[in-house]
Design brief:
Distance between the termini: 29 Å
Protein name: Dehydrogenase
Helix content: 25-40%
GO molecular function, one term: NAD(P)H dehydrogenase (quinone) activity
Number of helices: 8
Order of helices and strands: EHEHHHEHEHHEEH
Strand content: 5-15%
CATH topology of the largest domain: Rossmann fold
Structural class: alpha/beta
CATH class of the largest domain: Alpha Beta
Number of domains: 2
Family: Belongs to the NAD(P)H dehydrogenase (quinone) family.
Radius of gyration: 19 Å
Organism: Steroidobacter agaridevorans
CATH superfamily of the largest domain: Flavodoxin domain
Domain Flavodoxin-like fold: 1-213
Length: 263
Amino acid sequence: MKVLIVYAHPEPRSLNGALRDFAVTHLRDSGHEVMVSDLYAMGWKAALDGDDFLNRDASAPLKVELASKYAFANNAQSADIAAEQKKLLAADAVILQFPLWWFTMPAILKGWVERVYAYGFGYGVGEHSERRWGDRYGEGTFKGKRAMLIVTAGGWAEHYAERGINGRIDDLLFPINHGVLHYPGFDVLPSFVIYRTGRMDEARYLRTRAELGERLDTLWTAQPIPYRMQNGGDYHIPSMQLKSELGIGRQGLDIHLDERRSG
């Protein structure tokens, strides 16, 4: 299998760097092909702008969606965007690895998503009508592929628990897991989160590394997060409201988990 790791941390000697190196070695030793997009090392341009769209009329106002649609369809994207899209298409599984900064991914990784997920590639795919609102949320370009987050956080696990001050980690990561990954079709695995990273001694690091190895060994067998499919009959189209008989007994973002497939 082919795995793409999109890595966003500026320091290769960090905990993230060590875990990234371990993941690459572990996957390769298990017989998998591994590609790494080390965004800081690549000098990745985070800001989406008119330079991303070749042959664009710079005298006209930039309409990002239309420019992205035309560039993708006409092989007129900047070379770095096209290269990352090629990696995504080749990968059987994608891992996004990053530190949790200000409750989300680092800006450079958000910029990777904004630039690489072009119209016709990451969004704007499929039929849009009164009965079907595109191929998204369980369908799309990446349907049949798997994805997982590896996230480091400075706070304690209790800080990100049900009653924790920071909010539930599943809620904080929902825009990434459900939006960035499930939206274009990935089967999304539960995130691998390492807490209290400032208190990482050698013994705990070795335990964390072993636990990560176990998770990597189940990339293709673990049960994905049971997100509902948009076009699977659970939502009214085109309002996208969950049907009233579903999600009973659940609260907040958990209503988008299929109770028929989750515990």
